[in-house]
Amino acid sequence: KLLMEGLDTALEKGEISLYLQPQVDASTKAIIGAEALMRWQRDGVFIPPSQFIPIAEETGHIHDLGRWMIHETFQLMYAFEQGDIDLPKLSVNLSVRQLFDEHLIEYLTTLFERFPIEPGRLNFELTETVAAHQSDRVLTRILELKALGIKLSIDDFGTGYSSLAYLVRYPIDELKIPREFTMQLEENREYQTVTATIVAMARQLGMALVAEGVETEYQENFLRKIGCDSMQGYRYAKPMPLDEFVIYYMKQT
Ligand code: G
Ligand code: G
Ligand code: MN
Ligand code: NA
């Protein structure tokens, strides 16, 4: 039985928070968006999402945690729009189980009423595993999200077991180049080829791109050369709490 002590009470104890990692245009240095990342601080110690998210997915806690993230995201976007912080995009990770939640659309509709944000600024990151589900259920749900005006991206594109057919079947707006690929660009010509091919394909399909885990000048130059200008990574900024993000934003503009 999968257990993680305290995960069931983490929310009510106020141990969960939302961090923001900026995404920048490498040629203009402008902030083009941010990814919302969940953080769990238990007894003063951060537990990595790679440890608690899979368990939250297994135990079903991901429903409450995920809704908390979505609610927080709406509240943030609304405050940004009211406060003249022009953040073109805010991305939230969505687990398979959240996508299959029967009440997801109803929940989002309620949030759009409470926080009338521009839907096109909200972006959900799905994994390839979600997208590769060959079911009408996924297609229906994706079309429902698109009908709300929400944008969709595929996280860690090219690292899962999936066909490329879903890129044709589903209206995907953005592909995220995995950190695993970015990390190898300097050392490995084969990763260069694979990454350049993803970028070329995304561009021809009219999709946006964001490269993850960009740390070095070499990586940035290579990505720009092959046609990807949008970057996320420690080279620009680490994930940070809201107050730090606002300071970062103010400094950039
Ligand atoms: O930046 P970090 O190491 O915290 O994130 C690691 C991974 O954890 C992310 O790539 C993402 O897949 C997952 N993750 C982070 N926050 C969330 C969240 O709010 N919901 C879901 N489902 N996954 C998240
Ligand atoms: O959604 P996803 O699993 O891709 O989340 C991105 C993860 O990668 C987050 O956990 C974030 O903290 C981490 N990350 C973001 N930028 C960098 C980077 O430049 N280097 C490294 N090592 N990790 C990063
Ligand atoms: Mn992500
Ligand atoms: Na990723």
Mean pLDDT: 95
- What is the CATH topology descriptor? TIM Barrel
CATH C-level label: Alpha Beta
Q: Any guess at the CATH architecture? A: Alpha-Beta Barrel
Largest sheet: 9 strands, mixed
The distinct bound ligands, ions and cofactors come out as: guanosine-5'-monophosphate, manganese (II) ion, sodium ion
Descriptive notes:
It is a single chain. The chain is an alpha/beta fold and 253 residues long. The protein has one domain: EAL domain (TIM Barrel), CATH 3.20.20.450. Helices cover 44% and strands 20% of the residues. It has 11 helices and 9 strands. Strands 1, 2, 3, 4, 5, 6, 7, 8 and 9 form a 9-stranded mixed sheet that branches. A hairpin with a 2-residue loop joins strand 2 and strand 3. The longest helix has 21 residues. The structure holds guanosine-5'-monophosphate (2 copies), manganese (II) ion and sodium ion. One guanosine-5'-monophosphate (G) binds next to loops. It comes from Exiguobacterium chiriqhucha RW-2. This is Diguanylate cyclase.
Write the layout of secondary structure elements.
Elements: E1 16-25, E2 31-42, E3 45-47, H1 49-59, H2 62-82, E4 90-93, H3 96-99, H4 104-114, E5 122-127, H5 128-132, H6 136-147, E6 151-155, H7 165-169, E7 174-177, H8 179-184, H9 189-204, E8 208-211, H10 217-226, E9 230-231, H11 242-252
Parallel strand pairs: 2-4, 4-5, 5-6, 6-7, 7-8
Antiparallel strand pairs: 1-2, 1-9, 2-3
Bound molecules: guanosine-5'-monophosphate (2 copies), manganese (II) ion and sodium ion (NA).
